[in-house]
Amino acid sequence: MTLQPSNDLLQWEAFKKGDVDAYALIYSENVSAMYRFGMSLASLSEYFVFDCIHDVFTEIWAKRTTISTPVNVKSYLFRALKNRMQNQILRRESKFTHLNDDNFDELWDEAVTQELDMDQFDSISKEELIHRLINQLPPRQQEALRLRFIENLEFSEVANVMSINRQSAQNLVLRAVEKLRKTLFL
Amino acid sequence: MQDYTMFTVSDFLMDDKFVGQHLKPTHESEVFWKESNLDLLNKDYLKAVEILNTLVLGMKNYETQNLSEEAKTFIFQKISETNKPKFDVFVSPNLKIWLGAAAVILMSVAIYLAQRKSIYQTNLTHITDQIIETKNTLNIDMLIHLPDGSAVKLAPKSKLSYPANFDSNKRVVILSGKATFDVAKDASRQFLVFANEVTTKVLGTRFVVNAYENSEQVEVTVEEGKVSVYKNKINAKNELTGVILLPNQQAIFDRQSDKYNKNIIKLPSIIDNKKLTKFVFDEDSFVEVLQMIEEAYGIEIEFDEVLLKNCQVTGSFENESLFQKLDILTKTIGGSYEIVEGKIIINARGC
C-alpha cells in the first residue's frame, strides 16, 4: 500500500515543467497541513508561519528545474517548512546557545503529568483529558504522534521530517503510547 | 508478509500498514488486511485500534486547526507576486537602511557642493566687463576667436569665459577644462588665463592649459614663446611662487600638495628647424652636437664643457625623438642624462 497517490508525483512532474496549475494544486492540497504543523512547531505568530510557507513555495518554484521529485510530497514540504522555520528562528536568536533536541527531552519534567488532578477526570470530557495528556508529552514525542497519526506519514517519512532514523521515530511514538496507556489504564 | 498473529499492541501501532488502514483505508489496504489471515477479533489488534482512536481524538484540536480560505488565498497571492519574473535587484531590509543612510549623505554633499562656489565661479570675478561664456558640449574641439584676435581651441567638456571687450591694460580669460591658446602679440597688454588655482601669463605665444575642475592637476604646456605660470593672486600670498616655461616645457601644478613640477613634455618638437643642420656625424665634436640639439628644441642642456671637449660623435640621426637622440649620444661616451626642473643634465666622465 502506498500512502501517496501516484497523482502527487504526476503533479510534481508537471510543476517541474513550469505548470502553474499543478503548482497551485500542490499548494492548496498541502498548505493547511503545513500551517497546522508549522503552528505546532512554533506558535510564535501566525504570520511567521505564513512567511515561512511563502518562502518554501517560492523557493521550490525558483528551483523547480533542478529539484528532484520527492518520494512523498507532503513530507518533503513539511521538512522544507521545518528547516525554514528553524533557520529563521536561529537567525533571530543566534546570540543564545541552543539545547539540542535530546537535551530537551531529558529536561522535560516527567512529574508534570502527576500534577493533573485525577479527581477532575469525571468533570472533563475524555477528549479534553487525552488532549491535556498529549500536550504534556515532550515536544518531539508530540511531533512524532502528529506526523504519524494525524498527518498519516509512514514512520520513515516521520523520521525524514524530524531528521532522525526510522527506529528513533518509532521509539518516540512508543514512549508516548506507553505513557498514555499507563495514565489512562488502557 | 508479516505474521500479524504474533503482533503485540505496540507492534500494531508501529506498523505503517495497520495505522494507514485505520486512518485512511484504501481499496488496496482493505484487500491487504483481508488477505492477512488475521483474526480481527484478536485482543491485541482491538486494543491497538482503541489506542489509535484515542490518540486521534486527543489530537483533534491539532487536526482541526485549519487555515481559513482567506488566508490560503492571501498567502498564494504573495507567493505569486514573488514568483513573477523580476528585473530589479533584490534589496535586503538591512541594505535598505544603508541605502537610505547613503542617500541622506549624498543629498547633504550635493547641497554642500551646490552652495560652495566653484573655483571657476570665483575666477569669474576677475572679469569686470560683460561676460561671454562658451561651453563645448560636443566631442570635438571648438575654435573660439577672442576680441583681440587671439584664437582658442576649446576641448570637449570645457568652458571658457571672457569679457565682451578686453581691458586696456590686460586680457583676462577664465578656463575650466582644456584649451590651446594662440595669443595675438600685444606688448602693452598681458594675456592672463585663470584655470583652477593657476594663472598663466603671456605676452604672445601658443600654449595649452589643461585644467578640468575634477582633475588633480593643472598642466600648462608651451608650444611657442615664453609664459609664466603662478598661483592665482586671490589664493597665493605672492606671485613669485610661479615658474617660467619655454617651448617643450610643461608645468604641472598639483592641486593637493599645492606644488609645481616643471617638466619636459614627452615628445618635444623641434622649435627651430634651421638650427638642426647636421644628421650625419663623423668624428664631430660631442659638445657641438649637444649645442645644436639645445637650440633646435629650445631646451636647455647642462653639461661640463671641459670634461666633454675631447668627446667625438660618429653616426647618424634619422627620425628619433629628442630623448632617443640623447640616449644614443650619451651611450657612445658611456654616460647618461636626466631631466631636472625642465632642463636636461648630461652625466659623463669625459673621453
Structure report:
The complex is a heterodimer of chains A (186) and B (351). By secondary structure, chain A is mostly helical. Chain A is 69% helix and 0% strand. Chain A has two domains: 6-92, RNA polymerase sigma factor, region 2, helix turn helix motif (Rna Polymerase Sigma Factor, Chain: A); 101-184, Winged helix-like DNA-binding domain superfamily/Winged helix DNA-binding domain (Arc Repressor Mutant, subunit A, Orthogonal Bundle), CATH 1.10.10.10. In chain A, helix 1 (6-16) packs across helix 2 (20-41), helix 2 (20-41) packs across helix 4 and helix 9 crosses helix 10 (166-184). In chain A, 34% of the residues are buried. Mean pLDDT of chain A is 84; it is low at 109-114. Chain B contains eleven helices and 18 strands. Chain B starts with 8 loop residues before the first helix and ends with a strand. Chain B is elongated and about 130 Å long. With 351 residues, chain B is an alpha+beta fold. In chain B, the strands form three sheets. In chain B, strands 1, 2, 3, 4, 5, 6, 7, 8, 9, 10, 11, 12 and 13 form a 13-stranded mixed sheet that branches. Chain B has a three-stranded mixed sheet with strand order 15-18-17. Residues 235-239 of chain B have low confidence and may be disordered. Chain B has helices at 9-13, 16-23, 27-34, 43-58, 60-63, 69-83, 93-115, 119-123, 286-297, 305-308, 322-332; strands at residues 131-136, 142-145, 151-154, 158-163, 170-182, 190-195, 198-202, 206-211, 217-224, 227-231, 243-245, 249-254, 259-264, 280-285, 301-302, 312-316, 336-340, 343-347. Chain B has four domains: 4-63, no CATH class; 71-115, no CATH class; 120-264, Jelly Rolls, CATH 2.60.120.1440; 273-347, Phage tail protein beta-alpha-beta fold (3-Layer(bab) Sandwich).
Sum this structure up briefly.
With 186 residues, chain A is mainly α. Chain A contains 10 helices and no strands.
